[in-house]
Amino acid sequence: MWPTLVANKIFKKRLGSSNFIADYPSCKEPLLGIVDFDQNSQTILNDHKDTQKCKVFVSTWNVGGIAPEEDLNIDDLLETCNNSCDIYVLGFQEIVPLKPSNVLGSENNEISMKWNSIIREALNKKAHERGKDHSDAKKEELQNNCPNKKENPAKYCEAPHDFQCIISKQMVGIFISVWTRRHLSPFIRHPSVSCVGCGVMGCLGNKGSVSVRFQLHETSFCFVCSHLASGGREGDERYRNSNVAEIFSRTSFPRGPLLDLPRTILDHDHVIFLGDLNYRISLPEETTRLLVEKGDWDSLLENDQLITELTTGNMLRGWHEGAIKFAPTYKYCPNSDIYYGCFYQGKKAEKKRAPAWCDRIVWYGEGLKQLQYTRIESKLSDHRPVKAMFTAEIRVLPELMKNLQSLFLSERFDQIKTPFEVSTADDFVRRKRSSFRL
């Protein structure tokens, strides 16, 4: 049995696909999918788009193979009572222990579903407590951007919660879950995932990445949740850099029916790379611990391997990271605020693992502005979770095009489309009737 499983994992193509979990399986076709135009019309549209902003929450947390209790409180992590975001992206590493049976065996999504249940309850509990938290102007703007339920109730995705999971994907211990407000769900198009294993034998999923992409209105997003090679010895950062190179080269998404969608990570408008990136501090352990005790973050960050890679490296040069003003997130003794190795003696003394900022969030592309970058004091694992908040610029079709979309979604369009035999969004794209060109 295991040789077959190993072979499947080695030779399995990690290409982009729709093989993920979402809240609304009945809405497989995007509501606005019928408004994909040919390339000539797309050129015109690109010159006539409005720009709006949305708020994006991103977090990363290595939970050390510890399954969450059902009553786990993540309110401090999400902080939804004070910061109301439109998109929530939560990345996890080691949601299951990285033992051979989990790395080589078939995928078990029991733990990831438990995490999704906890996230769902936390987001929607806070949303319910806040009530209608948008101002009248904001609500009017959002209503203008949403399809009219009365015009086409068959294609309107009803949901019981304010937040919906649009993409959820697990590869061994790496797990990413993306949530949006319900009113945005109809405008999420072309969701896809791509998994890259960089672990055992250079291909298994104990290390690697799970990348997700989608288009919100006319802007593409890509979120890469990663767990890179570990190791605190001199030169180990080269393995992490190699993992990044593999992730960039092997991650691939479908090009879409018109072959105009982003295919690689860097092709997207907004890209955020998050996870246990495992970069360490290039100083002797004793020096590192002394500077940590003093709270001298500046001296430590001058020797941080990821910052070096961001400024002078080959793989992540040109990427951005917010200012780090919090203590190293790794490695803690279980259920304590004490860094691992401070009081250990004997056999374990040789693997003390000096403190480091292993858990990071970096981004690439124009139109992203970071509002917050901090860590959360959860003691569930030997890592502290890290979160960031951004504003992201979104290109939205102008009012004329939204009116045209409303026509396509209305009963009037249902009445006039029969002569053209337009039965699906794909049929419409293939025909690309000249009468609908601008």
Helical content class:
25-40%
Distance between the termini: 58 Å
Low-confidence spans: 26-45, 133-159, 416-438
Task: Name the beta content range.
Answer: 15-25%
| Global Rg | 23 Å
Number of helices: 13
Order of adjacent strands in the largest pleated sheet: 3-4-2-1-11-10
| Sequence of secondary-structure elements | HHEHEHHHEEEEEHEHHHEEEHHH
Give the overall shape: globular
- Major pleated sheet: 6 strands, mixed
In total, how many beta strands?
11
**Class inferred from helices and paired strands:** alpha+beta
* Mean pLDDT across all amino acids: 80
Pfam family, one: Exo_endo_phos2
Family: Belongs to the inositol polyphosphate 5-phosphatase family.
Protein name: Inositol polyphosphate-related phosphatase domain-containing protein
Organism: Sphenostylis stenocarpa
